[in-house]
Design brief:
The complex is a heterodimer of chains A (about 120) and B (about 450). Chain A is mostly helical and about 120 residues long. Chain A has 4 helices and no strands. The radius of gyration of chain A is 25 Å and the shape is rod-shaped. In chain B, the strands form 2 sheets. Chain B has a two-stranded antiparallel sheet. In chain B, α4 packs antiparallel against α7. The chains are: A mainly alpha (about 120), B mainly alpha (about 450). At the A-B interface, α2 of A face α4 and α8 of B.
C-alpha cells in the first residue's frame, strides 16, 4: 500500500493536489478563461488563413462589401465558436475536477489506513 | 497457459527491476524512429536529415519528458517545411498551433499517442492505435488520436504538394494551393472522426461490467471503425483500401489481445458475486479473480563452512586448492538457492537424518526434513537442499586428516555437489520448481 501511495504521490499526486486546492468554481473559471484565450487565438489564425487564401479578391472586394454586416457575421461566427468551445471546456473541467477530488479523497483515506496499520504494529 | 502466465510474471518482474534502464531505452527508440520517420517522409532540409543529429536529439528525449519529443518532432517538421517553401511552413505552423490550442491542451499527457499515430501510419498499421488507446487510455485520448491523424495527413499532403509548389512563384498562389489541398483532404477528417469514435466506443465497452468486456470492446471497436470508414468512403469517395482496413483491424485485435494478456488477464469461470452492507450502503459486488502464477524467485543463502566440526585447516586448504583446480567456486562462497513451494522433501537424500551438534549442515538438513511438498516457501524449504550437501560435508568431517584422504573426501563432496546441481537442472527442465543450490 505504501508503495502504491508513494507512486501516486510522485506521479499524479502533485498535479491533482494543485487542482484540488481550488474551489470547483474557481478552477472551472480559470480553465474557461484559458479556453477563451485559446479559442480567440485560434480564430485569429483561421481568419488570417482565410484572408490570405484569397488576398487579392479580398482587397478588391473590401471597398464594395457592406463592412458593417461583414464584421457582424465574423463576430457572430467568433461568438458561436468561443461559446461552444468554452461550454466544452466547462463540462470537461468539471468532470476532471470531480475525478481529481475523488482521487485525492481515496488517497487521503488510504493514508489514514496506512497510519492506522502503523499504530497497530507499534502497539 | 500456465507457462505463458509464468513468462508474463518474469517479464513484469524484469521490467520492475530494470525500469530505470528500460524506460529511457524505450523513449530513445520511440524518439529515434519518430525523428527518423519525419526525416524520411519530408527530408527537405539536408542539415537536419543527419543521423548524428537524430541520435543526439533522441538521446536528449530519452531523459526529458514526453512533451519534449512532441515539440522536437514539430520543430523538425516545420524546419523541413521551411526548406520546402515559406508558405508550407506558414500553413504547417498554423495547423500545429490550432491543434495545440484547441485540442491538445485537453490531453497533454498523451504526447506519445500523437507521436505514435503517424509512426504507425507509416508502418501501415494505423488501426492498432484507436483500439489500443481505447483499452489502456481514457476517452480524452480520442483528441490525441485525432491530432495524430491530422498531423500525418498534413505531412503527406505537404509531400504531395511539394513538386507543384516548387514550380510556383507567387506567394498567394502557393498559399491558396496549399489551403485548398488542406481543406479538400476529406480522408483526414473521416479517419480522424472514425478513430476518435472508436476510442470512445472501446473505452465505454471495456469499462462495462460484462464478461469478456475487453474482447467485446476490441471487436466492437474494430467494427465501428470499419463502418465509419466505409460510410465515409461512400460519402466522400476517399482513397481508402477497405481490404487493408479489414486486415489492419484483424492485426489490431491480435495486438490488443496481447495487451489484454498483460493488463487484464482474468478468469471469468471463477467469478463471484457477493452482497454485503454497512451503515449507509448495500453493496452488490462482482469479483473476477486475476490469473496469476507465482513466479519462481532466487534467493541468496550464505553457508559458513568454517563451523563444520572435525574439519581441519589442512583439509579446508586442500578442498580450496582442489576446488580451484576443478574450476569450482571457493569454500565459503554463497550458495544460490532457487526456492519454490513443494520441493522440500525431494532433495533430502535417504539416510540424512543423522544429527551432529554444532554442524550448520545438520541444522539445515533437519530443517529440510521438516518441509513437506504442500508447505509454503519458508526457510525450512529453502534449506532442504542444504541437508543433502550437509551429509557430504559431514562425511568429509569424519575422516582422518591426511592430504590424500582429504583430497578424496573433497572430490566426493564436489561430485555430490555436481549431482545435486544436475538433479536441480533436470527438475527445472521438467517444469518443477525446485532448489538449485551451489555449495563451495
Amino acid at each position: 500500500m505504501m508503495t502504491k501511495l508513494a507512486s501516486y504521490e510522485e506521479k499524479e499526486g502533485k498535479k491533482n493536489e494543485n487542482i484540488g486546492n481550488f474551489f470547483r468554481g474557481d478552477y472551472v473559471a480559470i480553465q474557461v478563461v484559458k479556453s477563451l484565450i485559446c479559442a480567440t487565438l485560434t480564430f485569429v489564425l483561421i481568419f488570417a488563413m482565410y484572408i490570405f487564401y484569397d488576398l487579392d479578391a479580398f482587397m478588391t472586394e473590401i471597398y464594395k462589401i457592406d463592412l458593417f454586416s461583414y464584421i457582424k457575421n465574423i463576430l457572430i461566427f467568433y461568438i458561436v465558436t468561443v461559446v461552444f468551445y468554452c461550454a466544452l471546456t466547462y463540462v470537461f473541467s468539471t468532470w476532471r475536477y470531480f475525478r481529481v477530488r475523488k482521487s485525492l479523497k481515496l488517497f487521503s483515506q488510504n493514508l489514514k489506513k496506512l497510519n492506522a496499520m502503523y499504530r497497530e504494529r507499534k502497539n | 497457459m500456465t507457462l505463458l502466465l509464468e513468462y508474463r510474471e518474469k517479464i513484469k518482474r524484469f521490467y520492475r527491476m530494470n525500469s530505470v534502464v528500460i524506460l529511457p531505452v524505450l523513449k530513445f527508440l520511440v524518439a529515434f524512429f519518430a525523428l527518423n520517420g519525419v526525416n524520411t517522409l519530408l527530408g527537405y532540409m539536408p542539415r537536419l536529415d543527419n543521423i548524428a543529429i537524430v541520435l543526439i536529439a533522441s538521446l536528449a528525449c530519452s531523459f526529458l519528458p514526453a512533451g519534449f519529443l512532441t515539440l522536437l518532432c514539430a520543430v523538425f517538421s516545420i524546419a523541413h517545411l521551411y526548406a520546402m517553401s515559406l508558405e508550407a511552413m506558414g500553413v504547417g505552423l498554423c495547423v500545429y498551433l490550432v491543434l495545440f490550442l484547441m485540442l491538445f491542451r485537453f490531453a497533454p499527457k498523451d504526447s506519445y499517442v500523437v507521436i505514435l499515430t503517424p509512426l504507425l501510419f507509416s508502418l501501415k498499421i494505423p488501426y492498432v492505435v484507436p483500439i489500443v488507446v481505447g483499452l489502456i487510455g481514457n476517452p480524452v485520448s480520442a483528441v490525441s488520436v485525432a491530432c495524430g491523424v491530422i498531423v500525418y495527413y498534413l505531412l503527406t499532403m505537404m509531400v504531395g504538394c511539394a513538386p507543384t509548389i516548387r514550380t510556383m512563384n507567387d506567394f498567394s498562389e502557393k498559399l491558396r494551393y496549399l489551403i485548398e489541398n488542406l481543406m479538400e483532404n476529406k480522408s483526414a477528417i473521416v479517419v480522424a472522426a472514425s478513430f476518435a469514435v472508436t476510442v470512445v466506443v472501446v473505452y465505454v465497452i471495456r469499462r462495462m461490467s460484462v464478461e469478456y468486456a475487453w474482447t467485446i470492446a476490441m471487436v466492437a471497436g474494430a467494427m465501428v471503425n470499419l463502418l465509419i470508414l466505409l460510410v465515409g468512403n461512400l460519402i466522400y469517395d476517399i482513397d481508402l483500401s477497405m481490404i487493408g482496413a479489414v486486415l489492419g483491424s484483424i492485426l489490431a485485435i491480435v495486438i490488443a489481445k496481447v495487451i489484454e494478456f498483460f493488463r487484464f488477464c482474468v478468469d471469468y469461470s471463477r467469478t463471484e458475486k457477493v452482497q454485503f452492507e454497512d451503515d449507509e450502503y448495500y453493496y452488490y459486488v462482482k469479483a473476477v479473480p486475476k490469473m496469476n502464477v507465482a513466479a519462481s524467485t532466487k534467493t541468496v543463502k550464505k553457508i559458513n563452512t568454517n563451523t563444520q566440526s572435525g574439519v581441519s585447516v589442512g583439509s579446508a586448504a586442500a578442498a580450496r586448492s582442489y576446488a580451484e583446480s576443478r574450476n569450482t567456486e571457493k569454500p565459503g562462497t554463497v550458495a544460490r538457492t532457487r526456492t519454490e513451494a513443494g520441493y522440500g522433501r525431494e532433495h533430502v537424500t535417504p539416510g540424512t537424518q543423522r544429527t551432529q551438534a554444532g554442524s550448520q549442515g545438520t541444522a539445515a538438513r533437519t530443517a529440510g526434513r521438516t518441509g513437506n511438498s504442500a508447505a509454503p516457501r519458508t526457510g525450512a524449504n529453502m534449506s532442504s537442499g542444504g541437508g543433502s550437501y550437509g551429509t557430504t560435508a559431514r562425511s568429509a568431517a569424519g575422516r582422518t586428516v591426511n592430504p590424500s584422504g582429504n583430497r578424496s573426501t573433497v572430490q566426493q563432496r564436489t561430485r555430490t555437489n555436481y549431482s545435486a546441481q544436475g538433479a536441480a537442472r533436470n527438475s527445472q527442465r521438467a517444469g518443477d520448481s525446485e532448489d538449485d543450490e551451489e555449495f563451495f
